[in-house]
Amino acid sequence: MTDIARVGATTNAGTSPYQAANEHVVRRGDTLWGIARQHGVSLGELEAANPHLARNDFIFPGDRIALPGGNDATHVVRTGETVGGIAERHGISTRAVVDANQLRRPDLIHPGDRLTIPGAHAQPQPRTTAAPAPSPRPQTGPVEVPAATPSVVAPAPAGTIDLRTMFDPALASQAVGAVVIGQAEGTRTPDGGFRAGYYGHTDPGNGVANRGSFSLQNAGTLTPEQADARQLTRLGQQIPAFETAARGAGLDPNNAALATAYLDLYNQSPTAAARFVDQLDYLSTAGITTESLVELRVRSFVNHETGERFRLPSGAPAGGGFVNIARNTLGREPSEREVQAVIRRDQDRRLTDMAAALPQATAPANVPTPQARPEPAAPATVGPARFTSNPGLDLTPVAIDRTNALHDAVRDQTGFAIHVTSGRRGPERQAAAMYNNLADGSSPRYRNQAAFNEVRDAFSAGRAEGLGRQAIVDRMANVLHAQSDRGVLISRHMSDRAVDLRLPPTGSRDTVIAAIRDNPAVQSVGIEDDHLHIQFH
Question: Which of 206, 240, 271, 344 has the largest count of CB atoms under 10 Å?
Answer without folding.
Answer: 271
